[in-house]
Each structure stands twice: as C-alpha cells, then as structure tokens.
Amino acid sequence: MSDPLPKITIDAAPADPAPPPAASKPAIPTVSPATAAFLEPYLPPPHANAYAKPLGVTQDRAPDAAQTRPFVTLTYATSLDSQLALSPGAQTALSGPLSKSLTHYLRSRHDGVLIGTGTAIADDPGLNCRTEGVGGYNNQEELDDPTKATTIAGLDDDEDEGLESDPLPGQPRPIILDPNRRWHFTRESRMFQIVREGKGKAPIILTRASSRQGSGEAERWRILCEHGGLFMCPREEMKDKSKRMKSGSRWSWKQILEFLYKEAGIQSLMIEGGGNVINDLLGRKENLELIDSVVLTIAPVYLGKGGVNVCPDGKQVEAIKVPAVNFKHVNWNVLGR
Amino acid sequence: MSDPLPKITIDAAPADPAPPPAASKPAIPTVSPATAAFLEPYLPPPHANAYAKPLGVTQDRAPDAAQTRPFVTLTYATSLDSQLALSPGAQTALSGPLSKSLTHYLRSRHDGVLIGTGTAIADDPGLNCRTEGVGGYNNQEELDDPTKATTIAGLDDDEDEGLESDPLPGQPRPIILDPNRRWHFTRESRMFQIVREGKGKAPIILTRASSRQGSGEAERWRILCEHGGLFMCPREEMKDKSKRMKSGSRWSWKQILEFLYKEAGIQSLMIEGGGNVINDLLGRKENLELIDSVVLTIAPVYLGKGGVNVCPDGKQVEAIKVPAVNFKHVNWNVLGR
Q1: Cβ–Cβ contact B321 with A under 8 A
Q2: Which residues of B touch A285 (CB under 8 A)?
Q3: Is the pLDDT of residue B173 over 80?
Q4: Distance between CA B196 and CA A238 in Å, rounded?
Q5: C-alpha–C-alpha distance, residues B127 and B185, integer Å
Q6: pLDDT (tens digit per residue) in B85-95
Q7: Which H helix or E strand runs over A37?
Q8: Domain range B68-82+89-322, its CATH number among 3.40.50.300, 3.30.1060.10, 3.40.710.10, 3.40.430.10
C-alpha cells in the first residue's frame, strides 16, 4: 500500500492584494408572466430586431421618420399619502422585492432612464437593469461571446460602430437632467462603478451650455469621458421666465424629448423621478400630452407630513377647480401585499 | 251595435297639491359575493342574532362585559394625491358605482356611522344605508309587518322597547362629532328627510355641554327631538390644551368611543371622515390603536394642490423620521377601473 498523498497547503495571500470588488448587487428575478402580460399594453413596442427574450430593447432600429419623440413611460412608487420619500434627500424604501423586479423589468424595456438632479444627488443611483438575462447579467449573447461582457459600453463605442450594435442589450442609458450641473459625481459614484463592472451604460447628462461650472468641473469631464458618458446641451429656449421649467431649466419637456430622440437615439424613455420632475410633468397640460404611460406603485404606508409629495398644480376650467389628471385606460395589479 | 264608450277626461289638478316627495335616492346594488368575502376579515363580527341576510347588524346583542369600546372601521375614498375633495367644502365624486355599493355595504355592517362637523356642513349627507334588503329598502321583516317600515326610528323608541328591537335593521345610527355645534341643520337637511321617509335612523350629535349656542339653537333642539335624535355630551377632559383634539374638542377618541359603546349601544362604528377626523386618527399613536380596520378606496385621478389632504403628522423615532402609519394584514381589491 502506497503512502497517502501529502497534504498540500497553499498560502494564498498575494504580495499586493487586489482591492475588493465594488459591491456588485445581485441580479433581480424577472417579473412573473402574469405581471409581464399585465404591463405589456403600457410599454413601448419591442423593437423589430429586439433582444430575443421578452426582456430588453436594442438600439438597432432606424428612427421612425414620422416620429419626433420617444415613447415616454412615467414610473414611480409612492406611499398612500402620495409621497416619494420621508423627507427631501432621504432614501425611502417603498418597494418590496416584487415592485423592485417590476422597476428593473421596465428599465429593460426602455432605451433610456431619466431622473432629475435631486434624485441623482440624494440616491447615488445605478440606473442599470439588474434583471437576470440582460446585458451584464448572464446575457446569452455575452455567454456566446464573452469579450462583450467586459466592454465598457460608452457612447464613443456606439458612435464608432454606428447604431448596429448594443454591447449591453437590455441595459438602458441613464439620463440625468442637470441643467445647472449640481450633480458632483466622482469615479466612485455608483453609475460609474457599474460601467467599469460592465453592468450598465454610461450616463448622458443633459446640461445647459451656459451653466456655471463649479470647482472640480474639469475632473468630472474627465471621469465622464473616460467611462463613455457625455454632457449634452439641448438648444436653449429664449430666456422667457414664463417658459422656465420648475427645476430651473429653460427647456420644455417637448424640446428635451425631441433632442433625446434625434440626437441620442432614445426611442423609449422611462422617467423615474423625482418629485420636481414628476410634479412638473403631471401638472401641465402640455407636458401630460407627452406621456404615453404611467406605472405607479402604491405602498400601504403613510409617510406623514414633511415628505416629498407628488401633487400636481390644481387645474381650473372656467374658474372651477377640476381634477388635475384623470387617467384613461386604468388597470390595477396587486404586487405582494 | 252599441255606441262606443264615451271618452272620459279627468282634470287631475287637486285644489291643494301635495308637495313633491323628497328626492328619495334609489336603492344601491349589494356588493358581489367576491367583494363581500374579501371584506369579511376586516369587518366587525356579525351579531349573534343578526339579520338573517349577510347584510345588516341589529342592536339586539347585550354588550360584552370585557369590551369597553366599539369595533372601529375607518373608511374613506381618496385620489392618488391622497385628497378627499378638490377644495375644502367641495363635494367631490371619487367613487364609481362599485365603491358606492361598498360604502353602503359597510354601513349595513356597523351600528353607527361617524363623521366630523365639516363633512356634515359640506355634504349634507344622508348617512343611511341604501342597500336593497336593508331596513327601509324592501327589508323582509318590513314586508312581513308593513307597519315597521313607517316607524320613525328614534332613540326614544329604542329606549321604550329596550335593546330588543331594531325597527330599521341594517341601518346605522348617524353620529356627528360636533363639539361646538357648528352644524346648523334644518328640517330639510337630508338626514331628517330620510328619517321621515322611514329610510334611516335619526342622528346622535356629540357636542360639548359648554358649547356656545348660536341663534336657532332652540329650533334645532326641537327638530332633533321630533325625529328621535339626540344631542349627547361626553364628559369633558380637563382643559389641558395638550390633550385637545385638533378639531378643537377636548375629548380623546378613546373617551368618545367608550361613551358611544356604553351610552349609545354602538358596538361597531364606521368612521367616514372628513380630513380633520382622519388625520387626527392616523396621526397619533394612541388613536391608531383604537382602529380595528381601514378600508381605503383610491381613485385613479390627481385632484391637484389645494384640496383636502389625508396626510398624518410625521413620526420620529430617536430623532429619525419613520413612516407615520405602516399597515398590517394589507389586502388589495380592484373595484371597477
């Protein structure tokens, strides 16, 4: 009988340990077929050459000549007292696992996801889609061609390759409405960590050409370009105060949407918040007309006074107050409790 | 062949025409069996000798010695922006036919229906139950003994006959929380019209013994007594401002509920609004503990700024804001669109 094999021990501590990987959040289960079927009439049409699974929208369609703006889905979660957060700037979890799945499913079905500056500052959001099967999360295309998964999916790449390729199928383009460049992001902001991990696209930051550039602006330009993101400046309206958006921009939503459609290839846009953006969209007739669909989640809690309230301006017809928004084609679905 | 019968004409105008009958609203269909089953876990237990149909609560149970207050159901309809009305005092239809059926079904299952002064003034409500089959609306007992249907169901009758009889089975007792006697009702107020029609019970008006009595007070006493209603004065708390209810009363809800249970035989109470009452109940821990059930209907509209908002006071735990109300055992049901 031969000697037993010697026990081998390996000292695994390398001389220069690699930094721990950025906390990469786990994938999120996709919505149930019943929820997907329920949502379908409220979603943009899947693109002609869409990602084969029900998830995901690719950017490989030529823009429709008759169309001038993206399909717009407004979506957010509120409490029973119509609040997004306990107080301005406070991250407030209003969604259970099922409504989180819903949000990520919706992201997979839109070319872009837009938020306002306030939300970017308060939440440091990733704005990617973590649904299993979408680019960066065990997508079949990546498994067939593993080099794709590690591509940093910047706009430069897209421009080089034309509209034909989407290195991260199903991942939406984050779009930050930041006219006055108040979002002072860093390399460690979650959106850029995610790009470096190959799990999401770099953001487009919509800004005013005339915005004052605070300290650190050159560094932010560098970070953004390095990850493949862009500052973009829609043409500004005349400086007529009456046309200003509440958030302080001089753009109209129509102008922003047409710009995103024409200049950034965004054919479907999910608008996720926050309070200023939502109230501005819901509170003006000309803005409401730009919204194709609203997906609203209501959590069974009251946050109480002092939160971030969704409540559009009141509306009058012949000096009589009438409901500000009266939704058509309403459907309800129960997600969890 | 005989002559044809002469045409007879009758001049039908009487010398002293009777006044047109008070606009008696039609009966409301009962809720579907599915909705009734959905609601059941949130309702007070049906009384031992209850009205035989699923509808209706009689007052023929002896009060439970261990219990000191009624089963309390808080119920109201809001818009997506958590508003009860477009502006203070404006009646705002937020309910479709199905949620109207729900409200009336709930009324049939409670001994009393409570509202605040503001709602009584703004809405001139009937507060009866118009569901087919309930007392005053083709109830089987009345059909067997038609004299019952025309009894004016005042408290005096109840007292004369003891707790054994309910001349209007399934009809709740309207209860108006009017500490300062601001509700200047008349004989033509809908609640009294309904009593005269034999379609509802006369109200209990909870008031302060010390309330200032405005002009016309003697006449209101007369109207109330004639219809079998009552002013009732719960014992007042010490005049400690910190214990005052927001509505200006010096009662606590605990005191009001115990009073209604012991002195008025109200074993189950539905609280229907309005804003001050709801916010006061939801906004204080000691009041929330008195609520057994909340039935909330949400209409798919935004009313817009300037309405009557349901939003309780914020709540803090160790200087950190937390949700004011976090409901347990939540269930959702879709009524209509």
Answers
A1: yes
A2: none
A3: yes
A4: 67
A5: 14
A6: 999 988 888 87
A7: helix A33-39
A8: 3.40.430.10
